[in-house]
Amino acid sequence: MKSALLLEYDEAAHGQTETMLKSMGYLVASAATPQSALQTLRAVRFDTVLTCTDFNADDRRSFTGEVARLAPGAAIVLMLDSDASGAGHHHRAGALLFKPVTLKGLRRVLDFGVDGLGQHPVWMAPDQERRGPPQRRVRPRQAA
Fold it and tell me: Cα separation of 74 and 26, whole Å?
């Protein structure tokens, strides 16, 4: 079963988004603050994190950056007000949704991703790659 962590300050939007996620087959957990969301991410693995903010007031670091660090395989969806521009937001968010969130928009982002290739690519860490670092070829010395 797919799971999602939802951080939304507006009660009405939170209930509506949670209902849509459940109708799509997601198990939904809620967080009231960015700090509680990060604590939840330390304990539980989620497939998707939906957040209304990329700012953590308790810390200088970016909230979406911390989410990406704690849950490297999770898709991060940033839900913005319709008057906000997405260009200045953190690059760690995999997709942007503008409020009010619709079922069609949510399904498009979660099923097809931003680039249409799926929800989120899983990149291998450099230390998990099978090939080693490039080897330098040394010519044998010729006898003079």
Answer: 13
Q: How far apart are the C-alpha atoms of 57 and 104, rounded to whole Å?
A: 32
Neighbour count for residue 90 (Cβ, 10 Å): 15
What is the average per-residue pLDDT within 58-74? 81
DSSP letters of 56-84?
-TT-SS-HHHHHHHH-TTSEEEEEE-TTS
The whole-angstrom separation of Cα 89 and Cα 79 is 11
Peptide bond preceding 100 in cis form (omega within 30 of 0): yes
| pTM for the whole structure | 0.71
Banded model confidence at residue 126, pLDDT cuts 50, 70, 90: very low
Q: Is the peptide bond before 34 cis (omega within 30 degrees of 0)?
A: no
pLDDT, residue 7, reads 94
**In the block, residue with structure tokens 């660090």:** 69
Question: In whole angstroms, what is the distance from residue 33 CA to residue 125 CA?
Answer: 30
- The one-character DSSP state at 142 is P
Question: What percentage of the chain exceeds 70 in pLDDT?
Answer: 67
